[in-house]
């Protein structure tokens, strides 16, 4: 296995059944760009669809039927675990019971996917059980560079809305990561805008949405979650054995 790895992170695609295929087209455009950069793998960090509808998952299944690289899914707060298991053929790595956390082992970088959604809620939650699973999982490969992928950013963004609907008990995540120096990146979505934070020693990178970008509301009286004309896109995370990680915003 070579000492080089390119991960395309595509997030918050919000595929719909009533938008004439617009969101699915953005997803396909991002995958085509990822193919041009010879991505080794693609991960979709949640909010795959907009309203948890069966027909939306059918549209998503069509959009990702022939991906240019191995493609991995995880849920966001707009997703339904049951529909993901039942309506997305070929994604057999998704656990059949419980939450949809799993590990991608067969690349030079290990990717630990953390499903911390709370069904019916907009916020996320890092439960003690999930923290224990993550701790055990990370302890199994202490010397392999590792990315943790989750939907909700585990840091305060200082945005009035997104700090209310962020990851509850994110301190638990930081406590676990602090014990595992091989965790080199935490990647997430949810906020529909590029931002950067930290969780223990690990940089956190928030990917934009492929569909629309939110501005910030940082002061009382400002509009909450205003849609802006900023460019949707995706993130390219490149790693080499010699140089470590670099993360790039890729505009659509
Ligand atoms: Fe979203």
Protein model, in words:
With 252 residues, the chain is of the alpha/beta class. The chain has one domain: Metallo-dependent phosphatases (Purple Acid Phosphatase, chain A, domain 2, 4-Layer Sandwich), CATH 3.60.21.10. It has 5 helices and 13 strands. The strands form 3 sheets. The protein has a 6-stranded mixed β-sheet with strand order 4-5-7-9-11-10. A 5-stranded mixed β-sheet has the order 3-2-1-12-13, with helices on one face. A two-stranded parallel sheet has the order 6-8. Strand 10 and strand 11 form a beta hairpin. Helix 4 runs parallel beside helix 5. Fe (ii) ion binds next to loops.
Strand content: 25-35%
What binds here, in terms of ligands, is: fe (ii) ion
Described by its quaternary structure, the protein is: single chain
Radius of gyration over C-alpha positions, nearest whole angstrom: 17 Å
Find the structural class using helix and strand composition: alpha/beta
Mean pLDDT: 97
Terminal CA distance reads 31 Å
Largest sheet: 6 strands, mixed
**Can you count the helices?**
5
Q: Strand order within the widest sheet?
A: 4-5-7-9-11-10
Give the CATH superfamily. Metallo-dependent phosphatases
Give the tally of β-strands: 13
pLDDT under 50 segments (min length 5)? none
CATH class descriptor: Alpha Beta
Q: Which outline best applies?
A: globular
Write the CATH fold name. Answer: Purple Acid Phosphatase, chain A, domain 2
């Amino acid at each position: 296995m070579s000492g080089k790895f390119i991960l395309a992170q595509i997030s918050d695609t919000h595929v719909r059944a009533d938008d004439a295929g617009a969101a699915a087209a953005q997803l396909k455009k991002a995958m085509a760009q990822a193919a041009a950069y010879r991505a080794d793998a693609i991960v979709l960090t949640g909010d795959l669809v907009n309203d948890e509808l069966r027909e939306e998952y059918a549209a998503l299944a069509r959009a990702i039927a022939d991906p240019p690289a191995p493609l991995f899914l995880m849920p966001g707060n707009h997703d339904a675990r049951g529909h993901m298991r039942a309506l997305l053929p070929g994604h057999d790595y998704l656990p059949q019971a419980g939450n949809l956390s799993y590990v991608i082992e067969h690349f030079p970088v290990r990717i630990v996917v953390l499903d911390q959604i709370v069904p019916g809620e907009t916020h996320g939650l890092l439960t003690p059980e999930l923290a224990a699973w993550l701790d055990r999982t990370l302890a199994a490969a202490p010397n392999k560079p590792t990315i943790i992928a989750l939907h909700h950013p585990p840091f305060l963004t200082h945005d009035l809305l997104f700090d209310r609907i962020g990851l509850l008990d994110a301190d638990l995540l930081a406590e676990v990561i602090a014990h595992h120096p091989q965790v080199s990146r935490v990647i997430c979505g949810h906020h529909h805008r590029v931002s950067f934070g930290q969780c223990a020693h690990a940089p956190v990178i928030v990917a934009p949405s492929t569909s629309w970008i939110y501005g910030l509301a940082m002061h009382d009286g400002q509009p909450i979650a205003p849609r802006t004309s900023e460019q949707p896109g995706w993130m390219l995370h490149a790693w080499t054995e010699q140089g470590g990680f670099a993360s790039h915003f890729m505009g659509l």
